[in-house]
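SEQUENCE-TO-STRUCTURE ENTRY
===========================
What this section holds: a protein sequence and its matching fold, both as plain text.
Question of interest: how does this chain fold, as expressed in backbone structure tokens?
***
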Amino acid sequence: MYVPDRVLTNQDFERMVDTTDEWIVDRTGIRERHIAAPEQASSDLALIACERALAMAKVDAKDVDQVILATTTPDRILPSCACTLQRKLGASRAAAYDMFAACTGFVFGAGIARGLIGGGMADTVLVVGVETLTRIVDYTDRNTCVLFGDGAGAAVFQACAPGEGLHAVEMHSDGDLGEVLEVPSGISRNPASAQTVARGDHFIRMQGKKLFPFACAAWRRRPASAARSRAGRPIRWTCSSRTRRTCASSRASGSGWASRRTRST
């Protein structure tokens, strides 16, 4: 993982907006958040996290087959942030693309990595979640500005022995409350203009009272599909030395993998 050096504390926010450390901690548990430097973009944060993950996994960037980058704050719309990261990382063999799925981005990326490896389409997948959300935070809105910071986390996924690694990933979406957490303008629905800038439509807007119970309900939900056994290769994901010790690093190929099944836990 990687977080920038600058820290913004709750005490700092007490001087910026009408809030208190007690109010923030009681409702969110947050005491401080890290803020990217002006010269840092999402790909810069992701680069450091990925370099650390590859070093821990003892994998060369040139051996990565796919780079999945989860973010809602890419460096720019084109090219993809993943392609920018690929160039900086030197992962010249890898397919690289962005996973634009907001808060669930890294989890969705892990699910895709599992599918790619289990289906034999890749041996090594690098998944990174990165955000520079402070670039789209309205620091006059006390309901949202205290929530968000900047940082990146990365993991290397490979096949491992049966019974080890990542057994299953639950993936679910519900677009019914899409306006509860949004950035109203900037792309095809409401292109950037002087009017959208004046309205502050390029900042995060959130209806917290609606979002919180929705998020809790989603956490309690257990899709029926998650209870079914899943076919494919067991997946190793490396993000710490402890993980390396408990997950085998062997790779496997051939039809033998197709007969092995794993169950979600």
Notes: The chain has one domain: 6-172+221-263. The radius of gyration is 20 Å.
